[in-house]
UniProtKB/TrEMBL annotation, chain A:
Domain ANTAR positions: 168-229
Keywords assigned: Kinase, Transcription, Transcription regulation, Transferase
The protein's name in its UniProt record: GAF domain-containing protein
Keyword Transferase (UniProt): yes
The organism's taxonomic lineage, starting at the top: Bacteria, Bacillati, Actinomycetota, Actinomycetes, Propionibacteriales
Gene3D superfamilies: 3.30.450.40, Winged helix-like DNA-binding domain superfamily/Winged helix DNA-binding domain
UniProt key word Transcription regulation: yes
TrEMBL record, chain B:
Record flagged with keyword Transcription regulation: yes
Entry GO MF terms: RNA binding
Gene3D superfamilies: 3.30.450.40, Winged helix-like DNA-binding domain superfamily/Winged helix DNA-binding domain (1.10.10.10)
Disordered, as annotated region: 256-287
InterPro entries: ANTAR, GAF-like_dom_sf, WH-like_DNA-bd_sf
Keywords per UniProt: Transcription, Transcription regulation
Organism per entry: Kribbella pratensis
Span of domain ANTAR: 193-253
Listed name of the protein: ANTAR domain-containing protein
Amino acid sequence: MSATDRRVREVFIELSDTLVDDFDIIEFLDRLAARCSELLGVSACGILLADHHGVLNLVAASTEQARLVELTQLQNSEGPCLDAFSTGHPVQHPDLREAQDRWPRFTAAAVGAGYLSVQALPMRLRDTVVGAVNLFSKSTGQLDADTITLGQALADAATIGIVHQRAMARQEIVTEQLQTALNSRVLIEQAKGFLTHSLSIDVDEAFVVLRSYARANNRRLTHVADDVVQGRLAMSALRSVTPG
Amino acid sequence: MSRASLIRPLEWTIRPAAVRVWTERVDHDRSTRVWGAIRAVANGDESSPSLLHAVTACAQVLFAAGAGLALTSSNGMLEPLLATDAEIGELDELQFSLGEGPSGDAISTGAPVLETDLAGLDAGRRWPAFSAAVAGRGVHGVFAFPVAAGAARLGVLSVYRRQAGPLRTDQLQDALVFADAMLVLALDHRRGVSADLDEVIEAAFTARRAEVHQAAGRLAAQEAIGVTDALALLRAHAYSSGRPLHRVAADVMAGTLKLESDSSPPAGPTDPKELGPDHAEKEQEED
């Protein structure tokens, strides 16, 4: 193994710090790609990450050549990274010059860029596979077991961070929904009160007016309520749907 | 300067979190204990744990007179939604009416606000109107805890104690877990808002909040001003007349109280009709 224990510890601490306010996933995975190359003694590292629809995207690559090779995988839907993602298991090949049958287009691109062997590691947390890490070497042969173990541990640490960060982001969306629920209730009451004065009707009638107008114009009740209190809606338009 | 002009603007400025959410560091045993207390209250009701059970259990565990939950709506306004009893509800509403108090500070800083003596000088300087009014009602300790998910500040759990003095460290930690429990009970991961919170919002609006916002809308139309200004007018009148905001709002909606914007200041406390002793008694009976 090419890295010192101290450096390995530092990198794990760095990768665990995803719960910061200004967390940026691209920057985070860029760092992971750079650290993988550094600690695992490989020539390059590329990372594919699945989006919310389960579609893989290239998010980081430690070199420009690795970026192009990864893009070739995505464009042609073939390659070790995709296999690691779909199976959830590590995939490797010690000599890509002999892998034409398995991944013809990927192999051509990788060998063309000077990469002769590859190791792909899934980014997995329990049942969820969020992406895969590709390790490229300019020499043939398999990575040793310790290196693969360390590589998988780095991928796992990053995965936990990403899954946690996504859970937090989802919670914030849910929180927004909650405030919307409260805000729309406030808005509708304000609009009802507004109409009791403008149309000289009572609050129950005011609600009927709001609802009838929203239905007749195929608009959301809260949007109509907002227009009313902001004075953007002519009272004559509402009077036409006033009961009685 | 009229008394009403002392009222601060209602919108608290929201600043980025200065303090990382404390509840992230909550230990497991404490969490089990706090949820146990909530379940015990729920069992007494023969129902599953709700937000009301949580505020009730929180008040019990902290030896408090009561506790309340207010949620932030647009512009950082804190909508008082739930309280252990009517008196506590009025204290939460008072913070809304005055636009000052520990809850607003807890939201704007993202950190708990611990006021151990409302009759003290510090509290008097920080929230002059609120501390005077609340100390006058025999409540001396107020502790406000943000209910937050990451950077999103959802609302505030307020705990009111009759006695002055700080919370013990373990009570303080319990309170943080209660604030976290509020979040869990308010949200539903499939639907967003939990059915319990839906009911809490509905009940609060049915009881008093609907009229407050209706009255703001009515005043806005009548005076051709924005709803925020209209609400400020209502709040100013509530403050200067010493009456709960929802009563003022009800009178505006019933047409028995006419308020006008700036040109003529809202009726002051000298208005005998508003401050009569019989009036105060009647309000207590109604609650």
